[in-house]
Amino acid sequence: MLRTTLAGLRLHKGRLVTTALAIALGVMFVAGTLVFTDTLRASYSAQVMGSAERMDAVALPEGESERPLPPGLLEEIRDLPEIDRAEGMVRAEAPLLDPDGRAVGTLPTLAVSVGDPSRYTAAQGELPDADDEAALATSTAETAGYAIGDTAEVLDADGERHTVTITGLVDFGVDPQVGYQGAVVLTPEAASRVTGVEGFAEIDAVAAEGVSAEEAVAAVDAVAGSGTEVITGRTLGERLADRAGVEADSMATALLLFAVVSVVVAAIVIQNTFAILVAQRRREMALLRCVGARRGQVFASVVLEALVVGLAASALGVLAGIALAAVGFRVGGEALDAGTGAAPLVLTPTAVLVSLAVGTLTTLVAAALPARRATFTPPLAALRDSDVATGLDRRTGWLRTGAGAVLLGASALLVSYAVATPSGQQGLVVVALAGILAFIGVVVWSPLLVRLAVAALAPLLRLLGASGALAADNARRNPRRAATAMVALTVGATLISGYSVINASMQATTDDMLDRQFPFDYQLSAQLDGEGTGTVPAEVTAELRDSPAVGSVIADRSAFPEAEGRPAGYRVATYRGADLGRDLESEMVAGDLSDVGPGRAAVDEEVAAGRGIGDTITVETSRGERDFEIAAIVPTSSQLWGVTLVPRDFAAAFPEITEDSTVLVTGAEDAEPREVRAAVDAALADHPTVQVVSMSDMRAQFDGVLAAAFLAIMAMLGLAVVIAVFGIANTLALSVLERTRESALLRALGLRRGQLRVMLALEAVVLCLTGALVGVALGVFFGWAAGVAVLRGLIFQLPTGQIAAFLAIAVAAGLLASVLPARRAARASITAAMAGR
Amino acid sequence: MSEYAAAAAPQPSPAPPVVAARDLTKVYGGAGSTVRALDEVSVSFSRGAFTAIMGPSGSGKSTLMHCLAGLDTVTSGTVHLGDTEITRLKDRELTLLRRDRIGFVFQSFNLLPMLTAEQNILLPARIARRRTDPARLARIVEVVGLGKRLHHLPSALSGGQQQRVAVARALLGDPEVVYADEPTGNLDSRSGAEVLGFLRDSARELGQTVVMVTHDPVAAAYADRVVFLRDGRLVDEVYGPTAETVLDRLVKLES
Ligand SMILES: Nc1ncnc2c1ncn2[C@@H]1O[C@H](COP(=O)(O)OP(=O)(O)O)[C@@H](O)[C@H]1O
Ligand SMILES: [Mg+2]
Question: What is the DSSP string of A780-834?
């Protein structure tokens, strides 16, 4: 039996090439992800291990406490005979100014000190060794626009500027804090002077000659008081590596999610290929049964074939995945803080075995059903001439129709429930469940859908002449086969169009929100300090109010009151310079914002806690509890969340708050945008840490984030589409093979080669277009449902351009898929084909 | 050679030839093993004549027919259909020629399985975007006796019915010549007789030129003339054949 199978494989290897490619692509994604993230993890840990292992003992504040280690401890450690040298690391905020004199980033940069020893080394240039020198984190230098040799300014705790020369760049690897805030590397003296911090975030020590790391740790531990943790450099390295590994893990999870989509699509393609092959080899199987093969042997022969193909294709996929990972790491490694991409690829046996197993098992599972069907071939089939009868199954059972209807109905019910009761995360789960049900329903209905689609497209196709008419007939002659090929494409199409809808709707919603709720030109805010708050100096607001180029200035002040020493859990705010309900709007639950006045407040739903308009609410203030009448209720998600008072009430309640947290600036009617910008810059000249965001920047930033995510997700879903197109090409190629004599007959009757090619191209286009259309319908519907279920007030936006582009791609893919099969069909010799040679 | 000489007596030529082959040679295969399937065959077919090509298996009957019909290229020699020298035509021109001027009936697999009998009959016209004369269609369908079965798929038709559909299709376009390659090879004798009778009638009554390949003496007896092939050469010819005379010649040929 084995020999028969292998001989059969050799004979039919052409028919399995595209299937093998489908498997290989899926496996490539899996293997690529695993190898890439393994390499990322390894290079992260190499970075941190390398830097930490140079230390023998490291003292850290215990637990999560940020309390610095006292400077005295460093002296004591240095005096220990077991210790050769030790240095304290200062790590505290010190805003770096960019070349325009504005503070870099929404959070102040960190000042980090390096001495001897230090865990950090310069990736380029040198570490600072004078107080007027500094190195920058590579990413910080890039965002701020600094290079080695430039001079830069750093603000100290009093806001005084210090000028430093940049001597080098430091790769911090995966240090989330440095990632968010950026870092300036200074000498220990400069660091403590600039930050004004007296102690250290870490003390690094190197043991004396002949002293082990453990002995050094014990010695340091003896002098360190409670609240200090002393560990070896290796332990610290492992800890940091673990933390970095978590980042790599979450990236692996995200990527694998997409890989699963590709593998599922590949499975559908494989299932279809084997189903077709089994159907085509009916007589062969029947002959085997005639000469005495048992059912089990027929089953085994198909499964064996799947095993061989699955293994070979998976091996190919693993190789391709390794190549993909190598390219990915070279291109993306630096962006992920994994260094310059020179790290060697990490190939673990697990990654290779898992990828091989995924590919092989998927193939086996997908081939099992067709293999089972093969065992039902009656031996008599060998004797029947099935030339004419093959593959004409136009019936659709009632069972099929009914089951599909039930599934789709259930899905519709779930969606209507989720949409009617928006509830965030849970709603998303319900919609996802409904999506899966609907997809199964579509799979069940797919032969029906193919026939409907072909019937709808047929008049159009007939306009294209004989080729078109024949294509329509061919497309529906074997609806189940066509349907499976189509469904493979539908998976990708659904996800892509669903995501496009969500993306477009989010974009429309944020645009609308920015337009309605932030109709301003600039927003000014303080760089956040340690507590996550900060204020814009009052003189900035005053200067802006006086500027002729500025039309309106709305400044908000907010307080987070406490009750009995614990946060009351809401914010109390006021908007000076704003006419509530006119300059500042919000979604409303009840009442009217313009009714807010002395003694009357706007509150959000949560604060209202069931109270209505006109009821009294008691608010904690720094002058004790005060009562207000509720004039308006807004949703908790509103920008006017918490309690909103008029300025006079706010000043009475929180007299200590005299500065603004954000300032919203609108240019005067007749002012040029340039003049407004100049006015803002002038007001902020002496306040480098105040952050300025222009609304157009903010919009571009939102759009940029959405667009980047869109591209990345499209690229990953795109692979699923590519695999599906392979599947369609494969189905077509196998059909063409099956129809060699038909093609020859058509050619004998006068169909030109070109017409034959057009016929096959149209058949593929019909399949692709149907798959894409069904996917778009599902995607748009579930994209909308998911959006509405999760985000209340989502503005539905149909990305018509993207969907049109996607359909155009589907048509092009169909044409492409038909190229090789059509070439083959058109080239075949008529006489040889007619003679069955 | 002696038999050939006997058959080469002057023959009546009722009409100018529709198809004429001259010194037709067809060699299969490349270097090493070559098969001379046709060896300098010269033959012509008159308008309205029903000719059978006979010969033992492998004698080159199908090859001759394919070359005459422009389905295959020749190694040397010429074939004329009317005034057209088809051996000089390119693939595209040959395709149009087959479409517009030639009808085909094959031994098996004549019909497209997804088209009904009627759609199969109309297929060449549809490919050519030709209008069909409904009266002609109705008449042919009636003569072939398919009336009730027109809207059936081929899988619902018997072998004889399928071949009759193929014949109707070949005749519908009023081609200059109809080629039939063993049209009754897969049929029982009664269905075969129906199809053959039908081919003969179309030659006699419609003036249709028919060239049929067969190895069955009974089938050949329906023709007006039988030509014999052996080893790729034209070796004999009989006018007004009966099954006995044909069988007689065949036995001589193979001895
Ligand atoms: N495509 C081909 N390639 C090689 N040899 C061929 C081909 N077609 C036919 N032949 C050979 O040419 C000879 C004549 O074949 P054919 O015309 O089919 O004979 P017939 O139809 O009389 O049985 C045979 O020897 C056959 O093997
Ligand atoms: Mg033959």
Answer: HHHHHHHHHHHSTT------HHHHHHHHHHHHHHHHHHHHHHHHHHHHS-HHHHH
